[in-house]
Fold each of these.
Amino acid sequence: MEINENPLNTQSPAPGFVNLFRVEDVFNLARANSLWPLTFGLACCAIELMAGGAARFDMDRFGFGVFRPSPRQADLMIVAGTISRKMVPCIKTLYDQMPSPKYVIALGGCATAGGPFKFPGQYGILEGIDKIIPVNVYVPGCPPRPEALIAGIMALQKQIKSGKTQGVMTPAVVHDSQDNHPAEYKNAISRVEFRQPKAGPPQAEKPPTPTPTAPTPENKG
Amino acid sequence: MNSKHKTRNSKHVFCHLNLVICHYFVICALSFVIKTMLSNPILQEALRIILYGTLVVLFISVNALFLVWMERRVSARIQLRRGPIHVGWQGLLQTAADAIKLLSKELVLPKDVDKFLYVLAPVLVFAPILSAFIVLPLGPHIIIRDLNVGFLFVFSLTNISFIGIFIAGWSSNNKYALLGSMRAVAQNISYEIPLLLSTMGVVIAAQSLKMSDLVSAQSKNWFIVTQPVAFLIFLCASLAEANRAPFDIPEAESELVAGFHTEYSGMRFALFFLGEYTAIFVSSAIAATLFLGGWRGPFMAGPFWLLLKIYGLVLVIMWIRWTFPRLRSDQLMNFAWKVLIPFAIVNVFVTALVITLQKYFA
Amino acid sequence: MPAVLEKNIKSWLLEVIKPQEFNEKNLKSSGILFEAVVAQNQIRDVAKEFLSQGYFLESLTAVDFAECFEVVYHFNHWDSTKRSCVKILVPKDLPAAPSISSIYKSANWFEREIFEFFGITFVDHPNLKRLLLPESSQIFPLLKSFKGEPAGGDVLQSLKLIEEDRQGFEITYPRSISRHKEDYYLNLGPQHPSTHGVLRVLLHLSGERVLDAEPVIGYSHRHHEKMMEIQTYLACWPNFGRLDYVGAMSYNMGYAILIEKAMGLEPPPRVEYIRVLTTELNRIASHLLWMGTFLLDLGAFTPFFYCFDDREKILDMLEMVTGERLTYDYFRFGGLDKDIPADMIPAVKKFIPEFKKRLRDYDKLITKNIIFKHRTRGIGVLTKETAIAYGVTGPSLRASGIPLDLRRQEPYSIYKELDFEIPTRQEGDVFARFSVRVREMEESLKIVAQVIDKMPAGKITLGKLPKNVPKGETYSAVEAARGSFGIYLVSDGSLNPYRMKLRTPSFSNLNALIDVLPGCLVSDVVAILGSIDIVLPEIDR
């Protein structure tokens, strides 16, 4: 008894003559090749972003050079620079205004995890944009070179083409090596003591940490 | 097993035969309908409209794709860089990727917008520009409809697109959009006058408003030779009508976020974009027809020369965009009212005088 | 003449005011001529006298001691360096002081900053609100009793701010009253296509005309001053590179000169020449970036790419030396991090004629362009009086007719031996500021050419130095690309600075816009903002 499991006799994809794509694949290919970033620079990394769009590095070659000023028309938010807490509501509003599908690249150390401005007890910045919006690609550096940015965007393109564009968020408190080095906040000194005249020439002031060799000959350089 | 096989086979044969007979009847019916249609003049006309409409829309889509690519490559060349070169051969598929991406974007309807107007605005901006193709002479007798009011028909319809811009800014419920659309309306009203006045000189010289007459009147000299001032005024005014730099204050990126289309996303934004590039094409087409001799050429006159002239003018328009900074809105108005309009009026008078004297003494 | 004036203010202080403490200081080693501690009720008269003698308020800050606060006023003269320090003591149990914002307009923002960082209230201040931190913030960060926030506090506060924003937490600055119902408020920023960074300008508009403008800053506050109090002096170097990232070498220079002043160090001559070489190259790069973005604001897209192309050539040269493209920390105390490589001088020699030719191209395409002239001539005039009232420095001041350049007035490094001019113009409009900066690029190129000819050989460090700066107060200022960058250091002799106040030029330059913007159109606002040349992180620190 011949059991025909494939009564319509189709093959998917048909070899050679007709190649059938899913519509979603075509869309992903188009999205990857036509990323429109939002003009959004916060600090130093913004200059490298601009240099990336300028003549020497030219991001427009790959298709992601059309910077749109309005979030409604952009689909890529490159968070370039330190995120101060005052700025957070603006970033969230801009992110919400972007239509899906939207992607986020955290450019630089500050947008990744606070960067050089993260110290124990800091009061002004948000340590990484992934604490409030999902991030697709992290580009480390301080600031990262424009080539690094282009590599980051290409990594995003790969993500989009594969269809796996779920961003990543990190928890509010991340334990890292800074936990072992708490910041030493000093107390206020007395003004009276401070205003007392110095006891000798400045060079004679011994540093608190003892050095193995005598300080005086070395100071003369 | 053999019998089952035979039954299946015969079932198949019967199905196939059925299909073939149905197809035959359908084809017969269709051909009868088409024959009657083709003999009836009204239905003939309807078919023609559908055909031309489809061709125009197809041409515009491909043309807009090409023009956006051209803009990016031309700007890159002027700016010491390469522009899109990786997506497709020489980057030609870049705009296609942009268009498909825009198609697949989420269509956002912001909360407090006037829904009907918000959705209507992009259509109003884009659709009237298509009217230009109806009266564009492509060759010696190739024209969709040779209206006796010719290009006036185009300009009167393209004014509707500025109502569209105003509606876009108003319905967006956004201060930037409103500012942008106010500026656009003021700009359009101011530049409509020198646009039409500059063409009056050509009309007086050719003694007709029909597009085909205007092209035939250029058999000896193109009108750019006899009316150079009018050509320059027409070029400036059409740049302003299309909101192109240096007159792009309504969409001034550095000042107003994105001007009147701040709140538009996805395909609606694509329509604005499409409208802008089609407007450039249409302005160049009319300039080429009125001043550069239309489809005339040294040999093989026809659409090829027209397209060559149009794209040459488009290149000049793009070149101008990347060379000059932007004019402020009041300087823009000053330029229109205090410079272009007086020159255009003087041009009309001088042309009329010359033509009358020619007739008198010739 | 200057000596007479100096005697006047000093003698006036000693005779009329009779300060509680008075010390003569050495200008070279401490940066000031004298310091005087006066009573709180006398500070307004002192300020009035300084203003009448032509001084501007260079810096105003506070220091937190155990018994009291010290509010420190630095006045300087634009004619020659006559920096004087006046202090008042504010008790801790009643932290209030008189405001001098009615006398010096620049004190308005300085006092707001002191209020939000120390909690000192200024009596009769018109608008004592927080400046850099969010309005709903409750902390006074620069107090020594503030020991930081717990981990995770950043996300908590961010979520709270997002919630406040959702509820329509609207900030209004009703300094000018709406005259008719068609007036409206328009926000320019903080996300702004014109690439200045995160600046927000609240405009009160009538149609397209500006009635009033209020810059709102703090969106880039990165707590440099608090960080420096818990870091060692050496660890503070990266901070200076990131204050003004576009012209970071001048900031390196400022810090190096401060510490060398405080410790009495003299760097070897080769170090000085290399420092000047890299600083001037960086100044050209900074002006190029400014020019590109300024013209982008005006709508000319192409010069941006040409300017960045030239800038990349300079960045290549600086990268040869430092390894960095942008945020340099190349200088060290009394020396440099590493010596310049052998192929740098030939690269510089090759660059100079190429750049001269490019400058001529810019002149033809931009300066002589009629649309550019229409957009910039007569727009945004900054008068001399406004400039002095707000303490404006740098090319913006020189374009208003005051030839104040710290490289000439208070020479540091080897600038005394170099031959260069100070470009000045009288009109004070956008075009004047533009042409002053273009001429400054030419002058910097001249300096670079002289330096590479005269560069001596030698060592580039002073060897091992003590890690702490001796106890005392020092003020040192350098001419950065945007104006006079001053640092006021209070050192208690330990490994960390006790208080480091950064007096950044863009802070005062932006402050002056409050008086310049009313009356112009929206398009002009963008042009004027661009011409002032601000970098937000140095305003917000």
Amino acid sequence: MLITREQILAVICDCVRRLGEEVGSDVLARPGEDTPLMGENSGVDSIALVSLIVEIESRLSEEFEMDLVLADDRAMSSARSPFRRVGILTDHVLELVRERSE
Amino acid sequence: MRKTLLITGSRKGLGRFLAESFLDRGWRVWGCSRSEPGWARDGYRHFSCDVADSGAVRSMVRQAEKESGGLYALVNNAGIASMNAMLLTPSATARRIMETNALGTFNLMQEVAKGMCRRKEGRVVNVSSIAAALDLEGEALYAASKSAVESLTRVAAREFGGHGVTVNAVGPTAIDTDLVRGVPDEKLRQLMERQAIPRAGQPEDLLNAVEFFLRPESDFISGQVLYLGGVT
């Protein structure tokens, strides 16, 4: 099953949108490639980020029947976190999908 | 609607006893062990899974979540023991005990709590042991692994508490199963004398404590380690 970047981005944006509605954040409620997911201005605290990652993993599993671990050793030890922005996270997931498909 | 429980180490001993007890009480029960269980009942689903293998645990839990519609409770019962003086404990044995008992508990909690936290509801009970409380000689790695289980219990209680998930532990006394079969009778007698209630533990004693923690009314109890036999 070929999974496109657009499909991954759609899943991530939907999860971020739901989080935005939950926490009452206008920025998160209208997510895009540049929407920050970390940092003071993101509106996403550490607990919310954990929940978001878990939610995205679950949605990816449901929609694409692919069990991915987004917070793997590489992501957690990376000098630049793949969870900084929606677009960067999308690229990270796409990379994981490609590795799984090889 | 029937609640679903996942219990590890359900092939025999206390794990099987707990699994069958909860089936008797109308629960749906998912169980796991490294090999096939050799028993079956309506309402029981078994997985072959080594709890120390995080990938295998992830696959099992995701399948269990899909098939069950959501796990309400987890009992981390799977555990191994080996009586050795510290000076004579092989490193492979030491590693295996820590991986199964402590890391296995962590792996299960990590995967199962994902769904529980999303649903804002769940119960986790980890099986510890009085070996941790009493620092039993000859059980260094077993006691250390159960101390790790207790610490994981307390931290998990804090991390999951805001999501409606309670995490507690039960520390049984020696109960007559394969786990204690190799322990000399004299040692068991000495151990019993260190209990406030000096009798042999029964599987029903463990069931009683696990049931208490799983009750809906126990939603304000978390991060606790309950030792049986009056051990403190």
